[in-house]
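Fold this sequence, please.
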Amino acid sequence: MKVTRRQSMLWAIATGIDMKVCAQESSSLSTLPSDSKSPKHLQRYLAQPRLVGTGTFSVWGLEIYEATLWSVAKTFNPEQWSMQPFALELRYARGFDGKDIAKRSVEEIDKQSILGNEKYATWLKTLEVIFPDVRKNQTITGIYAADQTAHFLLDGKFIGSIHNAELSQRFFAIWLSPKTSAPKLRMSLLSGTTQTE
């Protein structure tokens, strides 16, 4: 399927993931104190969640979302992020279609390490089922559990899970892997850690 420039831009905006030349990421460190009280819906999934970092992602000067990373560990290890439970919250600054969010997510996963056609299609279908359309100020929360499953909430209400450990890990790698296309946002999310990379 031929992808138009407009569609590509909308997909980039949908998840706030970099289009290289046009995206701007917040390079500021966490704007919240480390003892910020975690939302109640997180406490159902993570024991005593603590704030790791937060950052804002913008495209062409338009804010797309604010991202916030929570962890149960006193020290979140960025080199071993996939071995620790955490939550990543995205508070959207504008509305997006759920299918666009799913498609852009799989494209970012594929960009880090190429997927075969079958896996690409399967993972896309999985994410399309989970992600709803979002409106301005709504929040999608992804919970990465100790068993490497992922659970998703919309404004604190459960909307679906991923029980495939590889997909769960690679989904969150969009933001947390050193291969992310949004390195400044990753730095902001990890601002409450001691990074050695």
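Confidence is low (pLDDT under 50) at residues 1-24, 26-35. The domain at 5-189 is CATH 3.50.70.10 (Chalcone isomerase).
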